[in-house]
C-alpha cells in the first residue's frame, strides 16, 4: 500500500513541519510513573502535565515520532553542583549487573508494546512503517537502547530485542559496561577520558551491522568513538552531543569527530541544554544560559539526516533523568545522508 508524503499531510493538518525526535526518554518517565501505580497507556494517550511527550501534545506540536530509549537508570548517580566558575565533575556511575538490567529493560519494552496494542503509538521497524504511521497521524515510535547492560556479553538478547523492534542502540551510557567506557558528566574536560570498546564491544558493533541496528555514539569516550568508526560499515551517529570547541563538556564532540561523522554521511544533531551547551555561550549556567543566543554556526558545518529524501527536523527536550537539570529545547535543521540504516 502506498502512502502520500507524511510531511505534506502534517503541513496541511497542522500548518507546521513534521518533527522526528532523534532521542527521547518518554519510556523512562512512563516506567517510573507506572512503578508508582500510574497507567502508562492512559498517561500517554490521554495526556499529562508531566514530562514533555504524550500523544496529544505530540500531535499539537507536529512531533510525528522519535527514537524512544530503553534506559536502565543508575540509582547511585549524584550530579555535582557547579562551582562559581560553572565547573563540575561528577564521579562515574557504578556499572550495572546484566540480569537486573535485562529485567528493567523488559519492563520498559513491555510499556512500548502496550502502547502499540492500544493504538496510542505505533512501533516501527522500518522507514516504510515510519512513513505509514506518519501518514495515519499516529506517533511513530522506534525502539532505542541507551547503554547495553541488558544485552549481555554473549549478545544472546540482541536478536530478541531486534525482533521486538530495536533499531538503534548506544553501547554505553555515562558509565562503563562490558562493551566499553562512557564519559563522565564533567566540565571542562576532554572526551578522551579512558579506553574505548572492549572485545565484546567490537562484537556488538559487528552484530549491529549485520542486523541493521544504528550505533549511537552519544556518551562514549573519544577512543570508543574511533573504535566504532573503524569497525562499523554504517554512517556514524551521535544523537545528543554538542560541539566541544564551543563548550568543553566531556560528552561533546571534537571537530575531528564531527568531520568523521560528516565524511561518513551520518547525522549529528546538536542539542541545546544546560549541561552540554551553556557555559561557553553565556558565561554561566542555568535559565539565563542563552541570554546572548547560541552561535550562528557550529564548527562551520551543518549535519543532517533524511528519511529517504524527506527533510526531517530533530528536536530534543530536557527529560526527567538527572543529567538534565533545567534544560531547554533544541531544534536543528538537518542535511542529507544517503546510506540507509534500516
Give a brief rundown of this model.
It contains 11 helices and 12 strands. The chain is α/β, with parallel strands linked by helices and 342 residues long.
SSE layout and pairing:
Elements: H1 6-14, E1 19-24, H2 26-35, H3 40-46, H4 55-61, E2 63-71, E3 88-89, H5 98-117, E4 122-123, H6 127-135, E5 140-146, H7 158-164, E6 166-170, E7 186-187, H8 199-211, E8 214-215, H9 222-231, H10 255-263, H11 274-282, E9 306-307, E10 310-311, E11 313-317, E12 329-333
Parallel strand pairs: 1-2, 2-5, 4-5, 5-6, 6-8
Antiparallel strand pairs: 3-7, 9-10, 11-12
Helix pairs in contact: 1-6, 2-3, 2-5
Question: Would you kindly provide a written description of the structure presented here, covering whatever features stand out?
Answer:
It is a single chain. The protein has about 350 residues and is of the alpha/beta class. It contains 11 helices and 12 strands. The strands form 4 sheets. Strands 1, 2, 4, 5, 6 and 8 form a 6-stranded parallel beta sheet that branches. Strands 3-7 form a two-stranded antiparallel sheet. It has a two-stranded antiparallel sheet with strand order 9-10. Strand 4, helix 6 and strand 5 form a beta-alpha-beta unit. The radius of gyration is 19 Å and the shape is globular. The two termini are about 20 Å apart. The C terminus is likely disordered.
